[in-house]
Design goal:
single chain; Lambda Exonuclease, Chain A; 7-stranded mixed sheet; 3-stranded antiparallel sheet
Length: 419
């Protein structure tokens, strides 16, 4: 198969679920090839760079340590390369500290980090694409007929599929492989996703001598790892079939309509998505918009209901993007934006710096409770829930002494405040 829009990665195949997004990103002759990263993309890139630094250092010296200034410097440099991530600088620093405390259980010196992998469909001497019968996968009583893939350079123009393994570990006997993938998203899932299956499949083709491939997701926000998923030959064949089907669908497509789906949150064109045009129209000359309320009426039309559900998904993501842009503008300009009845701005409030409430400080807090004859366990430990409970107690002296003890910090919140 000679590709028009390849090589394909999991993200490119996911983008292909929506014709409009795929066209704008990979086909449109007027597209910006140096497109601006959105927040999720920039956050992921910055975290991966920081984790790469940490992992390489731990592999070289398992007993190494990291200073606070060292991690802060590495994080700042990564965010400078991905400025859209500035908004989550505190979260990224926290993810880095958690990763140092809870790295992968096994990190051998020959572990591959941010490994680039690519495969291409092998041709015979006459230029025909080669296939073979896979005896390990039986379909309707017959071996599955599969393409013959071979490894190639990541930037090979004939590359069919490619991806990056955050961490790849191969056993000493070269029969088993484990793939770790860092995730910065707020939701957690099992490690049997299409993306992880894609990586396992590419690696199975890149290293055909492997007999066992497992994937593990590292949820950086929470410092936890998913249970490992081992990919069977049948599952890898199913992933290959899914990849080939998606590629064929994209390559043969001649209509590039918008199709709302669960990947809309990552789409850089969400604000101009045609899926909204039937319901919301924007005058490009004035910037004014009009909502077609009648367009939301569903009645008994199931197709309309499905369309509305897709629209809600798109609009929710559009609102996130709009708020992000407004927040960035206000942060840079230092001035609030007011509209009738509401003002958008940052407002600060003093809060407890819980990162410093530990050790001796915790013991001092317990001593204050005991001094006033109150069991500190009633307040469920040191957390935000605990703090709210304490401040509502009727013992004013207790509250005053705790407030003087706990370190304070200024927290800012951005939103539309009613006027």
């Amino acid at each position: 198969m000679n590709l028009k829009y390849g090589p394909y990665s999991p993200s490119r195949l996911d983008t292909g679920l929506c014709g409009y997004s795929f066209y704008k990103q990979y086909i449109d002759p007027n597209r910006d090839k140096k497109k601006k990263e959105n927040l999720p993309q920039a956050r992921g890139s910055a975290v991966h760079e920081v984790f790469e630094y940490i992992t390489e250092k731990m592999i070289k010296n398992p007993s190494c340590s990291f200073s606070h200034d060292e991690i802060r410097d590495v994080t700042n440099k990564a965010i400078n390369r991905h400025p859209a991530a500035y908004e989550e600088i505190d979260s990224i620093n926290s993810m880095a500290r958690d990763y140092i405390r809870r790295p992968p259980k096994v990190l051998t010196k020959d572990a591959e980090i941010e490994l680039k992998l690519a495969i291409k469909w092998k041709k015979d001497a006459d230029g025909n694409f080669m296939t073979y019968e896979d005896q390990s996968v039986i379909i309707d009583g017959k071996p599955a007929v599969r393409p013959v893939f071979e490894e190639c350079d990541y930037d090979d123009k004939e590359a069919f599929a490619r991806g990056r393994a955050d961490i790849l570990l191969i056993s000493d006997d070269t029969t088993k492989a484990i793939i770790y993938d860092h995730k910065t998203q707020p939701n957690m899932e099992e490690a049997d996703t299409f993306q992880m299956g894609f990586y396992a499949w590419v690696i199975s083709r890149y290293y055909p001598f492997l007999t066992e491939i497992s994937t593990i997701l590292h949820f950086a926000r929470y410092g936890v790892y998913s249970a490992p998923i081992e990919w069977t030959p049948e599952q890898l064949w199913q992933i290959e079939t899914q990849v080939l089907d998606r590629v064929h669908n994209i390559e043969s497509r001649d209509q590039w309509d918008a199709v709302p789906n669960n990947k809309c949150q990552y789409c850089p064109f969400i604000a101009n998505c045609p899926a909204m045009q039937e319901f919301v129209t924007i005058d490009e000359a004035t910037g004014n918009y009009r909502v077609n309320v009648a367009g939301f009426k569903i009645l008994h039309d199931v197709n309309k209901a499905v369309k509305i559900a897709g629209l809600i998904n798109v609009m929710e993501e559009a609102v996130k993007l709009a708020k992000e842009e407004l927040r960035t503008y206000i942060k840079n300009s230092g001035a609030p934006i007011a509209i009738p009845g509401k003002v958008y701005e940052y407002r600060g409030s003093e809060a407890i710096d819980w990162t410093k409430v530990n050790g001796k400080l915790r013991e001092k807090a317990y001593a204050i409770f005991e001094k006033h004859g109150i069991d500190p366990k009633l307040f469920m430990g040191f957390s935000q829930t605990f703090s709210k409970g304490v401040w509502m107690t009727e013992n004013e002296q207790l509250v005053k002494e705790l407030a003087e003890l706990f370190p304070r910090k200024l927290e800012t919140e951005f939103k539309g405040w009613k006027m």
